[in-house]
């Protein structure tokens, strides 16, 4: 853990008397805590002595013997004002070893201009714990010629031998940047202790350079450090942005954004922050007035608390398993600081408690120590400080000692099991129903009928066992304990209202007997009760304690009500009869009213409940569409629901007592139920809604709820993409339901899918890759890329490997490119957009490859061998391991899905590695086709080869077969991965034929004729063989052309042609039928002209002697055979059809040959109808469809690339460079090609709601949720509306 966290104030702040200022100025103590909070380190910079002790023994620290640091290590400690100063840090206790860091900080270390100035130094000491339990003398482990703020961080690491090692990292923060040292003793590879120097992000770096030339930046940097996180806060253009960096990975984990006008900030102080232990919540304050809570996973604000004008926020820390927030504030005009305990998940009257110390109370002192600047230190759930005498105090212990908990004895009558107080409420049976036991308060009640008799309408019959008891003397409040629920009903002048409901959350089956509640203990009092029950579920015995009221106010009761909604939904199918169905609907409405009333009165607490408990998930399961819609859209700008992937791990009230199984079948059934519940628990709220949609493809409440959630998320994502954090993984699941597929297609026409702009207070140079940033243009082409989220490393000691060569190549290439093509627009900040879908292109398969490349390190030659001789296989056939992006590609067959910026950016980002793989296959195919052409050329030419030339030809034949088998095996693996159903497509089949045909032709005709003596000299070629080789070569050329789809421009032309054919094939078929009609007529007319006396036209020739110009008496007779297809093309139908086709080019062979009026008539009709009409129609038709075909070609190209990416993602490819992890978000520059069409469609659908298509088809009762029902007379719920700022009127 760190040292002082809020020691930058110029004012002295304490819970004790202000007279401590003088003594505080003389103190020289430093305090540090190990990151896990197990050990404490104190250091006296005057004596250079320190102590180490376990946290649980901190009160005994004064009894510990100090260790002496060699004074020669720090010879010059004379101070000039605040400098030099000491900073300390302590590591975790690992393998009987602990490390200590002591940094001697000079003023120059904290100045941006450090030239020709003396620097401080940092020394790492290593101490070993001996068998006696005490530590050995400190051993100097490392010394570094720089001073600064020091911290330790630990991270697990797995070696190639699968040995788990804990890396210990020491960080030094100063004006130059962050210096990291990694070391350890157990394994030699961690002993290198190489220094890594990381630069700060650009905006912070510029700030340090401009503002901290004279004044040191110690306080600015210290405010950025928390635990193993580095947090940067920036303000620009009315936006406050907080960047959260993880020091273990040196990578940015999240960005938080808020508008300053939202919280009306007028003053700023030192930022205060804290992160919950479960790493889900971040507390932030600008140091004045208010505190904000963010959800780290999505970066969204979930709560805020304003403590008043000019109130100074000094410190904040999550305590008690992150359930409470400890704050220290300084209220104006008050001498002493105030401790604040904020119960985050409570609506009780004292959910925020204040403690102000008394004058002279020295039980805990918080004061600024100008001497050491490290007088205090935080640990998980507490805050420690060291006084002038070296004593360590805990603020939480001080607070607990001041707390006085008021205990009340609520229960005065014990009913089950009975005791001496039971006589006060005698046991009776309801009239006409002996199964219903009731405990009355009135001695002689006039009405023997209870307020409620059966409030479990799913239970068949009314003779089941249940117990009731009245909770007030007037008997207007009734507790009823049924089979699986516990309910409280209250009757007043306005009617009967449900006050509370609890359920045991069991899923019913045909035999529901085991799930029945068994009462172990029941106590009741005035408007209170305490109940202990047990039940058996899947052979496991559970128990629970239910009571009223709860210490957290209404929170637990509302949580139980939400669980009851889900409980009732599971029993909906057990309802019998309209009467019971009506009761069931009424009960659901009453529960929803209970929840709605709480949300209406306590919206801020509901938002925090939604983060910690699965309340929204249970409401969704319950199917209350009105309640879901109110939470999402009912309160403007309240944002009552925040999406989340990680669930808050919390202890359940159910306790496993014992496990019993009647037989093996019950055991298997139990395991299945448990697995199903685990699946539901691991789902997001959106996925839960999808899973509960009706399987019979009908519109139900859950279909509408899915629409509500998608509309809510997409609307809010326009200003913060964190709202879509759960949408990415849920999108592929929408295709599993016929009705939800509509949502999957329409959601991409929401404005947010254009992408969110990179915030202005994040420098674009921090995220854009070097090679892209240096080659930007004014009219930027569309580029998608993985952002740089890691801090830039300034390391002069590079390893000479492929990655280093690649980086050098890019650097040199871009510099040359800039010299040749100077770009004046490069200095203008570009517009960078972020694809709004979280982990959209992230695959489990890629994560597995990253793990494997760390464990299995192959040499360059082995990779080259595998690449050349082993066709790559697939890592998984399961689609569940693929990225959401690829799942959508495989589920959606409509190319319009790619007509949006998000999908095009994802394709652009993923395309490069996939293209490179298929280009390698292209090279293999070119070699394969070249070998076939060369060998067949020798074969057809009958070339005689001898000696080495013949051997070369033989090797060429072997290489041809190797390439053919390689490519064939690639197709087989693809077939095995996709399955026949997905593999059988035109292009896949053509690929397969183009590979098999040359192998067959080569084997049957060519290689069988090869001789080692003379090659192909003795070959006898035939017409059939030549034709087979000719058509095979044509097929190879077509395959060669189709491979050009890997290149953008040629691919576009190919798809334009294919789209034109696709759009015009019906017209072409019609033209073919017309031609066939005329051809058939000509065939009938001229098939046997001798039988019909059809004469051919005679040609007259005049021959003259060229010298004398006299006629020559010669007779020329034309040899014409009407039955020969060469003389008469109409002798068979096929030739007649072919000759008719040539009419389109102006060749009328029938009319030129035969002298017959019928032929002339048919020719005239064909020329008018086919040539003049249809041909010109086709030309006009082609002109009309070209523009549309061009647009569709872009979508078809994206489809081809997407399917190639889909195939490549599961591939076990060879990577010569280390594989980079997939980004959480994809970034892009420029404008996608689909933007104009997509924007036009978006504008048309701007006012359409996703859910409107289905919402009108379901019925919902809304008359219950009215303003009059916000307040219930004589309610058990004690609402203090004024305290929470709510006006019930």
UniProtKB/TrEMBL annotation:
Single GO cellular component term: plasma membrane
GO biological process: calcium ion import across plasma membrane
TM ranges: 611-632, 917-940, 952-972, 984-1006, 1026-1044, 1065-1086, 1164-1186
A GO molecular-function annotation: monoatomic ion channel activity
Protein's UniProt name: Ion transport domain-containing protein
InterPro entries: TRPV
Keywords, alphabetical: Membrane, Repeat, Transmembrane, Transmembrane helix
